[in-house]
Amino acid sequence: MGTIAQAQTSIVCDAAGDTTLRNGNISTAVPPWLDITRAEVSDDFSGNILFILTVSAPIPASPAWKSVDDGGQLWWGWRIVGDFASDFTVQNGCLKSAGQSVLAGYFLDLIWDVTSSSFHARLVDDTSCNESLVPFIFSDDRTQVTLVVAKSLLANRVLIPDPNQFQFLAATDGWKASSAGNQSVFHIDLAPDKTNGHLVPVTWSATGSGTYFCP
Prior knowledge:
With 215 residues, this protein is mostly beta strands.
């Protein structure tokens, strides 16, 4: 009998209920459908990479939250680079206002746009502003969303020398204005969480599996 290939998967676990926003002494409750509990990256063996995000409650068909009710966006997504340790900073990147800096990388997100009342998913190279729409699908109970990225889209060899191996973290974010190019972004949840104020990436590889921060 022939050997059946097994998908190489990296899994990050994140504690439920760790998504309270604070502004001074004021705390704002965060909807559980923005609370990440698991982030998973896997290879489907047909040239695609599956990015699977699980949250604490079903993502509504029309998400509503007072923090973006005036118009804006909600993001369920991923930050992807070859090696965070050698990542570099981009001035005036695609996702920030003029004069701001952001770490270079790919941004992969499912986006709910409040103004148009619609979902879409896209991959952005923040160094070139090259943007590609990508397929996405919700699980039957809508607690999980899968984004499908062709490896060929990860074509910037400065950011990712080999699309068969890279580092990533997952995030939910909000934008308080209708355009992403503004200063009103706020981070809601990260997986893995920051350690001592620093981002903590993990690795996906087509040649091996890994589990991070899971009981």
